[in-house]
Every structure is written in C-alpha cells, then in structure tokens.
Amino acid sequence: MLEIIYQDEWIVAVNKPANMLVHRSWLARHETQFVMQTLRDQIGQHVFTVHRLDRPTSGVLVFGLSSEAGRELSQLFEQHKMRKIYHALVRGWIEGEGVIDYPLREEHDKIADKFATGEPVTQSAVTEYKTLAQVEMPYPVGRYDCCRYSWVELIPQTGRKHQLRRHMSHLRHPIIGDTAHGDLKQNRGAAEHFGCQRLMLHASMLSFIHPFTQQLITLEAGMDETWQQMLQQFGWTG
User: Is the pTM of this model over 0.90?
Assistant: First the structure.
C-alpha cells in the first residue's frame, strides 16, 4: 500500500518509497512493482503522470486523475510554478546557506538515449541550499579516521537531470548513497557503520496553486525508516 498524502477529484499525491520505479520501463523489464500501477489498483482508477522522481529518491509524487488534470499540472512544472523542497544527507561539513548557479551539460543514458541525435547541450541550473545540522562520527572512512556529514535543505530553481546530485558533487559534498555522482568510499562507510544502503535524497515538500480551485496546495511527505534511523544515530531528532 502506498501512503496517499493528498487526494481530491482532480489530483492524487503519494509518498513515493525509495527504489520504486514510477512506471513501467523497458530499461527495467524484470521489475514487478511500479508506483503508477500500484496506485491505480489501490484507488481503483487510472492515474496520469505529471512529473518523475528518480528511482532511488523518495518523497512527494503527484498524479492527475484525468488527462486534463495531468496536462494542467505538467504545465505548472514546465513553467516553474511548483515550489519544491528536498532534504539530503551529504558528505562533509557544508556551512551556512547559498545558491549554486552552475550550468549542467545534458546527461544522455547509454541505453535510453542511444538513438539521441546531436551533441548534449549545456543548460542553466540553479539550486538554493541551507545547512540544517552537522555531525562528526568516530568511524574511519578511506584515509580519514572519522566521518563528517551535513543535513541540508535543497530548493531547485531549475529541473535538470540529476541536478541536485550533480550540484552537491560540484561543491565536493556529494549526497550519501549516490552511485553515479557520489563518493563510493563514503557510501560504503555509511552502509557499514550506519546501515545506510540507499540514496539519501528525499522530496519533502511540493506547493503550487491548484489549477482547478486556485487554492494554494502544500504537500508534505514524511521521512521513511532509513531516514529516521540516520537522524536518530546522528542526534538530529527533535
């Protein structure tokens, strides 16, 4: 059962579990569980995709309950009229808050984009960040005799592929559990010492003006057990 965090006659939103695909894909032919199909069966009606979260990312995921609602919501995303807040656990101590204004070159997947034509282009990409907490733990990782982590809030102003992962990597504070852009030694250390074996990126909040009622909607997704355990181990609860 998926956790439904909002539903009306036009929209339904869930708290997407980590490592669950949004919909069927020929790139993952052996998978049997997908958010879209599970939600359809759970509420007994078709749902229409509006946006995506990467497979390892958890958090707020919105669907339309009609093709019209899906189109209206998609336009809000395309026009950057959705305010999104993510939380991430990153390597090292990152201080204060700031804005990452660092253009990103398009990422082409070797399989999914093998028929893409033309060279990847560089696109503007902007992310706001704010440090919420820091910790140093007495466990060796790589050549260091301890490990440091920061808990950060991330607000993307643009929607490039893997933007948050790539921006944090650019700052030399990659997200823990990121196998594509992260620090593999830190990932192994987090798994060994804290039982963390997933990407620590969570889509916590999404707010927008409802396209049919014109009311402000704010959707929030609570953090799962892995997140709660990590926060507790680092003394960040409360």
Answer: yes
